[in-house]
Design a protein that fits this description.
The chain is mostly helical. 68% of the residues lie in helices and 4% in strands. It has a domain at 130-245. A two-stranded antiparallel ribbon has the order 1-2.
Length: 273
């Protein structure tokens, strides 16, 4: 379900590409250093957006380093480190852990069990540091699983459930900006859930798996689905534009106004070949 909230590479300047890559590589390095190399396999582009948003809002001191790594051993790539990069890294691991547990319980996937055991060794530290966020992830994933298994016929319920999960992740701490960040995260989470349901529609029908659109008896209807998606993204960007963002604003604009739609259409094309 993750991976849609990313950049439209063709519209980025070289400087913006380097900045985005530095944030992404910074999260990857933090996951490997704070958790394990295996955990870095779960890295999501969505967490790079979260880190960049929080960095732009709070403007922390940063350290930037050009280093080679196991994935890029020849050419040195810049990576950035700050508290919000590390926060995004921990949230990435927590999301992956609870998602793997859910897959193991629901489908008995051995690979999910192995990965959850690996990630679970680091969850005590993350849960102690971020109890509210981890509780929200756990509760929302459980509620989402329950709604899907029950064949919920109201798409708004599972969408709101995933929105609640994202809302809590977007709030690092309770402060002046937390209400607006929650609203932004809620709308973005609803957008992601409904987008994923549209992209997976044919596959879910073929495999007889839950999909909110089939649950209400709706046949394939891309124009209608895009109306819903446009409405949710409109709510998201409305909150986003109310934040006093300067640093990386153009890069964040690229993601919300272009990247999510380009990635959505690419996924749609890929799934419907």
């Amino acid at each position: 379900m993750f991976g849609y909230v990313s950049v439209h590479q063709k519209e980025l300047t070289e400087e913006q590409k380097n900045r985005y890559g530095a944030a992404y590589c910074g999260i990857c390095r933090c996951i490997r250093e704070q958790t394990s190399k295996t955990a870095a396999l779960c890295l999501s582009y969505d967490m790079a957006f979260l880190a960049l948003l929080l960095m732009s809002l709070y403007e922390p001191e940063e350290t930037c380093h050009p280093n080679a790594c196991l994935l890029h051993p020849i050419k040195k790539r810049p990576w950035v480190d700050n508290p919000y990069i590390r926060y995004a890294a921990d949230m990435n691991v927590a999301l992956a852990y609870y998602n793997c547990l859910d897959d193991w319980h629901d489908e008995g996937t051995i690979s999910s069990k192995i990965l959850s055991n690996e990630l679970g060794r680091h969850m005590e530290r993350i849960e102690k540091a971020y109890p509210r966020q981890c509780a929200a992830i756990r509760i929302c994933i459980d509620d989402l699983s329950r709604l899907e298994q029950a064949g919920c016929q109201n798409p708004d319920e599972p969408a709101a459930c995933f929105g609640t999960l994202m809302a809590e992740l977007f709030v690092v701490r309770e402060d002046h900006w937390s209400p607006r960040l929650r609203h932004l995260g809620m709308a973005l989470g609803r957008f992601i859930y409904l987008l994923d349901a549209a992209v997976d529609y044919r596959r879910d029908v073929r495999k007889k798996q839950y999909n909110p659109w089939t649950a209400i008896g709706m046949e394939e209807n891309w124009p209608k689905w895009e109306e819903y998606l446009t409405m949710e993204m409109g709510k998201c960007t409305q909150e986003y534009e109310m934040l006093p963002l300067v640093q990386d604003k153009a890069l964040l604009d690229n993601i919300l106004y272009s990247g999510v739609w380009v990635n959505y259409r690419a996924k749609r094309k890929e799934e419907h070949r």
